[in-house]
Amino acid sequence: MRQRPTVITVFGVLNIVFGSLGVTCLGVGLVTQAAMAPALQRFGGMQQWSATPASHAWGIVGGSVGMLAAVVLIVAGVGLLLMRPWGRAVSIGYAAWKVFWAFVNLAAMWLIMVPAMKQQPAQMPPGVLEGMMVVSSVVGLVIALAYPVLLLVFMTRPYVVAALRAPEEPTASLP
Question: Structural domain boundaries of the chain?
Fold first, then answer.
């Protein structure tokens, strides 16, 4: 029986917890967006940036991709808890994808959401919206990158690699 480093247990559990939260929250968000946005637009109750066709579409695409990534994270967590080499590989793949996706989301916010928000009647002094978006972009990016970067760092530690290395097959000796 191989020794399990504590970090593998910790990240296995965290992967399952964060993945489950992602599935739950994104599931509720997708259902809400798909069900409520058209009705609110029809009755004139939703005049915010989320009512634009591009931002609505991005919400559904982003939420769907996020849901798939959350399921992958759960699978990675199970793999780590079972001490399978593929659990580490899936965790690294998830982390790399999540870093990439954080920058895709940042670009989408600036290319889709900010222009849509600027189309709304001005309720703030000039420059305030842009300042708020810069601050929220930086804070959002730091938060979005925190867990995947930690996951990458710890899954590439030599003792984690060694602990999750596939056991070698015993070779049969010839008589």
Answer: 6-118+129-163
